[in-house]
Amino acid sequence: MNIQTQVQLKPFNTLSLDAVASHYVKIHNNDELLSAVDYAKQQNLNLLILSGGSNMLLPEQIHALVLHMDIQGIEILSEDESSTIIRVGAGQVWHDFVLWTTQHGMYGLQNLALIPGLVGASPVQNIGAYGVEAGEFIQTVQVYDRYAQVFSQIDAADCHFSYRHSIFKDDPNRYIITHVSFKLLKKADLKLNYGDLKAAVGDEQTAENLQNQVIQIRQSKLPDPKEFPNAGSFFKNPVISQSAYDQIAQKFPNLPHYPQPDHQVKIAAGWLIDQSGWKGKKLGMVGMFHKQALVLVNYDNAALHHVRAAYQAVQQDVFAKFNIALEPEPVQFDQEGMICSH
Ligand code: EPU
After folding, report:
1. Known catalytic residue: 164?
2. Would residue 233 show up in a list of annotated catalytic residues for this protein?
3. CATH for 16
4. Which terminus of the chain has a smaller tally of CB atoms within 10 A, N or C?
5. In this structure, which residue's CA is closest to atom 7 in ligand 1?
6. Taking 80 as the threshold, does the pLDDT of residue 211 lie above it?
7. Is the whole model's pTM more than 0.90, yes or no?
8. Which pLDDT value is given to residue 1?
9. What are the beta bridge partners of residue 62?
10. What is the largest CA-CA distance in the chain?
11. Which of 71, 95, 115 is the last residue of a domain?
12. HEC string of 57-86?
């Protein structure tokens, strides 16, 4: 175990925020994880779990032990005539893993191609895109339980997956995810209901083509963090009651909306931001992307307080126009490495 001190995390968070960690270690396996947890206990340091860094807001100084999860490996656990169960290390790059499943005739995750981040983070906020959520294909999540101080596994049903949510968000200090097991199909069951995906896929209804179309759609409107540092959708799509929606719809009949199974209505935050004049607009070095207003971009070395000033201005303008409070999607950390509210 190689614990380093005063490590710059700018290359490890996709918003490219300047953030120096007092202590940092890369974790390649469960033994190293245990040693790091022990070290933090001895030194009285909080743990900050760093995965792909694509959904986090970091302050400039962090006094904590950063565990940079780098557990690799894809292993087939079992298969029958219709499905394959595979166990994947938390440190595998999500998009590469999706491509690998498609190449190996394992289907389900194709709509989730090109989502940034690592496999270990996929259950945390139940990543989703184009009508599919990772939780639909997760079978178990293998964790280190910091409360019970044991390695264990949690069945998908007990993860309580919902829109951008799971038990891992309810109690972020309890579990460190080491591996995720997925149950994937041998025969593709293409999910083409989202937006214009069906038209994009056209007559060539194969998993490979679906995956390629998703990649193309994402590339056409979502900025590459290497060129425009960003954290994907910066706000969640608000989910409101049917009656609240009916009221807004009277004034704004074009508001894109998606009825939910629980009779609530999800509305498009990108549209609200766009209509509030923020598409392509900047406050200092931070702005909302010109092709997709839901994505906040760090255009020039912004620190967390610049990001906060910009997103709060967006929140205020959307609230003033629509009376809707937007909730940021990325997780914010304090200087002690603890998750804090926005
Ligand atoms: N819209 C605008 N202006 C904009 C952006 C969007 O009017 O600047 C409208 C679009 O025209 C569309 C609606 O808003 O009618 C929804 O837009 P889109 O289909 O692009 O999806 P989204 O709601 O903005 C969500 C996810 C994305 C995911 C896409 C596709 C959230 C917070 N975001 O975005 O996830 O890729 O759907 O499924 O749920 C992410 O979480 O980081 C992410 C990129």
Report:
1. yes
2. yes
3. 3.30.43.10
4. C
5. 271
6. yes
7. yes
8. 84
9. 21
10. 61
11. 71
12. ECCCEEEEEEEEECCCCEEEEEECCCEEEE
